[in-house]
Design brief:
Length: 317
């Protein structure tokens, strides 16, 4: 089997990817600074290096050992990118360039599969969003992700580094940290509803999102490693199914068998009203589509929690 590097491997998506790679029999090196990643997320069979994605010596040492790199390390928060503009830029864009440059300096460039984001589209009303839709990011986070896609083109055209980027829509699943103010709405809602606490919807709840389950994301990341190319292709990872924030709350209530109070607050600055992806190009390229719908993903995520699993079982019987 092969050896791979996963940056951000102690994080939400990265840790699930490590599990999948190890399950397939691969060796896994992980680079994570543990700023948001957690040791308890990491598969014990993975080899962890605690460090910075911009550490050139460290990344060269790691990249020289592997046949491919999955780059998921990021400060994955629109809010945080507004609060710490320069810091997030150093991680989200400069760190990506460092990996591309490191790969280019090897005897044989190592393919890099990297996480982009639906944030590159901004508040584009032309739904559903395809890879050819106008990109007009509204935040520093979205700008950095778009810039990484452009830098990937440079990596391929000038330095012959094969890459592939995935524009993640709203990914959810186990290991999202509900205690973080930057966490996804599903993990926050699920945690609060499970504790019979009220939930807050910013805006009127009509905002549309395309929620994609983490196991579907991992499956496409694995497939992507075989499709990396110096042409720097980019694909949406989405379901193409629209869910409102208010509808999300009602689905949670239905699964858990009770409701909590919904408090409505002013819409957050920079929040996108509607985000719905078109997975057609993804399906055509990989001959596969997202397998989980919102309800299935929520149920599996909730069942991963022992306390919630017991409650759901009681509801079922």
């Amino acid at each position: 089997m092969a050896k791979y590097l996963v940056t951000g491997g102690c994080g939400f998506i990265g840790s699930h990817l490590c599990d999948a790679l190890i399950h397939q029999g691969h060796d896994v090196l992980v680079l994570d600074n543990l700023s948001t990643g957690k040791l308890e997320n990491l598969n014990p069979s993975a080899q962890l290096y605690v460090g910075d994605i911009n550490d050139k010596m460290l990344t060269k040492m790691l990249m020289s050992q592997v046949v491919g790199c999955f780059h998921l390390a990021a400060i994955a928060s629109v809010v945080r990118s507004n609060e710490a503009w320069g810091e997030t830029h150093m991680t989200n864009q400069s760190g990506t360039i460092n990996l591309f440059e490191t790969s280019a300096g090897l005897v044989k460039p190592v393919p890099v599969i990297y996480a982009s984001s639906a944030a590159v589209y901004g508040d584009n009303a032309a739904m559903p969003l395809t890879e050819r839709s106008v990109v007009r990011p509204l935040t520093a986070y979205g700008v950095d992700k778009l810039a990484c896609e452009l830098q990937a083109q440079v990596a391929g055209r000038i330095h012959k580094v094969p890459t592939l980027g995935f524009r993640f829509f709203n990914v959810f699943g186990p290991r999202q940290d509900p205690s973080s103010p930057y966490s996804g709405v599903i993990s926050i809602f699920s945690n609060r509803v499970a504790q019979h606490q009220n939930i807050t919807i910013y805006g009127d709840g009509s905002q549309i999102r395309d929620f994609v389950y983490v196991q579907d994301v991992v499956r496409f990341l694995l497939l992507g490693m075989q499709q990396a190319d110096i042409k720097a292709p980019v694909f949406n990872i989405c379901t193409g199914k629209a869910s409102s924030i208010k509808g999300l709350a009602q689905t949670l209530f239905s699964i858990l068998g009770y409701e909590v109070e919904i408090i409505y607050a002013a819409k957050k600055a920079g929040d996108i009203q509607h985000s719905l992806g078109d997975p057609s190009r993804l399906v055509q390229q990989f001959q596969s589509c997202a397998e989980y719908d919102l309800g299935q993903g929520l149920l599996e995520m909730l069942q991963s929690s022992h306390a919630l699993s017991h409650h759901i079982y009681q509801q079922a019987v």
